[in-house]
Each structure stands twice: as C-alpha cells, then as structure tokens.
Amino acid sequence: MLGSSIITVLVGTAKPEAAKAFYGETLGLKFLNEDQFAAIFEGKNLKIRVSKTPAVAPAPYAILAFDVANMEEAVDALAAKGLTFARFGFLPQDAKGIWAAPDGTKVAWFHDPDLNLLSLVQRG
Fold first, then answer.
1. Position 100 in a domain
2. Cβ-count burial of 109 within 10 angstroms (0-12 exposed, 13-18 middle, 19+ buried)?
3. What's the rounded mean pLDDT across residues 82-98?
4. Phi, psi at 23, each rounded to 5°
5. CA neighbor of 23 nearest in space, from 47, 57, 1
6. For position 87, which CATH number holds?
7. Which letter does DSSP use for residue 107 in this model?
8. DSSP state of 85
9. Residue 66 has pLDDT above 90, yes or no
C-alpha cells in the first residue's frame, strides 16, 4: 500500500539554528524550506524533516545512515568541517573511527547538534 509513497525521515531538534547549519552546511543536504515547525532537507532519495521541539531524547542507536562510495574520503571531508566521529569501546574502530564489519561493510558514526546518532555506510 505505501510501497510507492515518498518517504520523509523525521528528526527532532531543540537547537533549530544549529541543526539547520549542520544538515545544510556540514552535511551538504539541499535545503528545501523552513516554517515555524521544521526545516526540510533533501538527499538523493529522501527528505529529512528536522522538527523543532522543546527537548530531544536521542535514541541509543543510529537513526539515519548515509551510503557513501568511499568511506575514508567521506570521513576526511566531514572531519575537515569540524565533525567528530563517535567511538565505541565494544567495536574495533580504526584511527578515523571507522568500523569494518565481517562482510567488508564500513561504518562510521557521528552526532548531530542534538546528539541524534547518524552514520556513514560503505557497503561491502
């Protein structure tokens, strides 16, 4: 029934100006519009609605994954913009914070201004 629907991801922010700069400038997503309730961005295959809310309770897992063709280049480009990649003591990550899964997939995690966990993924 909904298989042909356009999907929009919803992300909360209590820091709308910081989130707008992060998703638009740092991540390079296309800014579509903003109203009193949310700012909307677009990537290659979906939209992200960054909804303004008084408080955010980040999930303990990644809520968004961005597929990349070259993990090291993507990590370096975002690190050059000041992004810090998350470290997890239970995963073996390299010096850049990249974890290599057994199937060759590479993953690196980072937070938005509200501490929502996001990730980069290079499929193995």
1. yes
2. buried
3. 94
4. -70, -35
5. 47
6. 3.10.180.10
7. E
8. B
9. yes
